[in-house]
Amino acid sequence: MTLSSIQARHYNTTEPIVVSFDDGVICDISPLESSSENLLVLAPGLVDLQVNGYGGQEFNDPELSTEKVLQICLAMDRDGVTEFCPTFTTQSFELLQHSMATVAQAIEEQADIADRCTVLHLEGPYISGEDGPRGAHPLEHVRPPCWDEYQKLQSAALGKIGILTLSPEFPDVGQFIKRVVDSGVVVSIGHTAASSDQIAAAIDAGATMSTHLGNGAHGTIRRHPNYIWDQIAADELTCSLIADGHHLPTAVIKSIIRAKSPERCVLVSDITGMGGMPPGKYTSTGIGDVEILENGRLVVPGQSQLLAGAALPIGTGIVTLLETAGLDLATAVHMASSGPAKLIKHELAPLEVDAPVDLVFFQIRNGKFEVHTTVNRGRIVYQSS
Ligand SMILES: [Zn+2]
Description:
Low-confidence stretches: none
Shape: globular
Bound molecules: zinc ion
Mean pLDDT: 95
CATH architecture of the largest domain: Alpha-Beta Barrel
Distance between the termini: 20 Å
Structural class: alpha/beta
C-alpha cells in the first residue's frame, strides 16, 4: 500500500485542498488549513473534441490496430486529457470505415480505451473542395453528403460517431443535417465556403457547432457578409477554437470569445499524430512531410509560415486564454473541460472520494502548461517525474 497526497488550489473556488491517494486511488479530499502561494491548480480533467492522433500515430491509418489506439489513449494522460474524441478527417470510404471500426471495436474491448474516449468525431468528407476552406483535407476524397454512406460509416463505428463536421454548401443539405441531428449526433459547421443563407439553413436544420472557427477558411474573403461573421453572430452555434498560439491571432480569439461569450466557445487541440513529438522533420502517413519547430509550430518543412496542422496539446490553449486573451482561470479551464464535456454529454463526476472523478493537477510556468498528475475515474494514470 502506497499513500500519497497532493496539495492544490481549486480552479474555481480557489480554496486550497489536499487530495490523498491510497495505491493511486483517491481516498480523501480535505480542505487545507495553511498553504503556500505556489500551489498546483486542481481542475476537472481536460476534454478535447478533436484529436487526430498522437506520438507519431494517426487514427486514419490503414494499419491501425487496437494496440495503436491504446498507445494514443494512454499518451493523452500526460497532457491532462481524460476524455477526447478520436477524429477522422476526409479520406476514402474504405479507410474511414477501417479506422473508425478499429477504434469503435477497441472502445468495446478495452476498458483503458473506453475510460478515455467514448465518442468519435468525423470531420469530413462532406466539406468544401475550395482551396482554403478545405485546409489539408485531400481534394480527391472531398464529396457531397450522402446519407447511405454516412449510415455505413456510423454502423462501422458501432453508432459511436457523436460529432459530424460538414459544410452546408451543398444542395438539399438541410434534410441530411436534420436526419443526422435526429439520430442524436452533433452537426458542426466547418471547412466551409457556405453563403449566409446556407449557414442559416444549416442552423434551422439543427446544426449547433462550428469547428475550429477562423481556421479552414479562405485566406481572403469579402469583408461582409461572410461565413465567419454569420457563425459568430449565431447564438445557436458553440464554436471550437484552436488557441495554440499559431492558428489564430490573439485579437481574433479575444473578439470571438467576447462576441459569442465563453459559454458558447470551447477549446480543441486538433492535434495531429505529430503531437507529443520533439522538434524535427518527419514524414507522417496522414499529412506527408512536416517539420515541428522549437516553439511547437507544425509547418511544411523549410519555412515557418505555412501550417501543416497542430502539434500542441489543449492545455496550451488554456495558457493562451489566460496570458493573451485576458480570461480568468475558471473560465479558461471551463472552455477546455466542462464546456466541451457538455457538448458530447460526457458527465464530469463530482469531486468526491467514491466518484469516478477526472482531474488534472497542473501549473503554468514560463508560459507552459505543465501537468503534474492526471486522475481518470478516481485513479492516478499519470504523474510527472
Ligand atoms: Zn479541420
